[in-house]
Amino acid sequence: MKPATVWRTIGIALAALLAASVSAQSDTVRLNKLIDLFEQDEPAFGLLSFDYSLTNARAMANSGLDFILIDMEHAPFDVERLRAFLLGMTNKRSILEKGNLQPDVVPFVRIPAAGGADEIIAQAKQVLDVGTYGIMFPAIQNREQAELAVRATRYPQINGVDDYEPQGLRGRNPSNAVWYWGVRDYHARADVWPLDPQGELLAIMFVESPEAVANIEEIISVPGVGGIFIGPSDLSTSMGYTSPAAPEVEAAIQEVLAACLEHDVPCAITTNARTVQQRIEQGFRFVTVGVDSGLSAGASSALRLGREAAGQN
């Protein structure tokens, strides 16, 4: 056998062994890192990003963060750019070194639709089909809206299963998501956690108004709600204050947090280097430490301080 043929044969064999190893580990390791951290009772740190560039995708994939929130509410709703961005975040070296398919930085999308059933269903379907690991739904006000958000995130279930409700509304054509996740059993995994304990998708509700604060108990009681994200700036504006620092706004934040802690629902909020340690100590399970275009000095500092507060350094 020629040397080139020998090396080619060895390379094919090694690639097959690697694929088998990754496949075996991926059957036991969660794909959604945020859920993994929730189940380990570890806080998670992320970034809010409006930058869909491939350069930023590479920066995010190697940032040391746990998740990225891609904001398509205040940036253009461009699914083709989102698809390229997600594929650009694929870190093949990390997959090789870890031996599993869990992204180091898991991507989520905040969609623009708020309240309208047709728009929410259509937008949720599109961002899920390109591979995002969950959706953050803006301006959730009540139980009905939260239930619609959950239904838009999940597929219709098989008759007779315990978690049939809330009945899923998502259509089945996730070709890009299957490719991006790197699994053959996408439909089995693509359900909402914690309603489906093996689900890899998160339906997260943004709380941004006094109505949502007043209805927080009924919102978090919807099966399939994977977390609550408090938006302090929008909350303060909707309450009639010019700053999130107003005592009344902080009281509303604490009311939502207390409900989430009581019912063991992960709660999130935006932070910075001045506030991240306090928020982690208060019990927030996941936080953003900055915005856009990689880790700025401020975001890096907030990430370091947050991990210190969580005992992760």
UniProtKB/TrEMBL annotation:
One GO CC term, this protein: cytoplasm
Extent of the signal sequence: 1-24
Sequence similarity: Belongs to the HpcH/HpaI aldolase family.
Source organism of this protein record: OM182 bacterium
Entry keyword set: Lyase, Metal-binding, Signal
HpcH/HpaI aldolase/citrate lyase domain span: 57-295
Gene3D superfamilies: Phosphoenolpyruvate-binding domains
Source organism, top-level taxon: Bacteria
GO molecular function: aldehyde-lyase activity; metal ion binding
PANTHER family according to UniProt: 2-KETO-3-DEOXY-L-RHAMNONATE ALDOLASE, PHOSPHOENOLPYRUVATE CARBOXYLASE FAMILY PROTEIN
Protein name per Swiss-Prot or TrEMBL: Aldolase
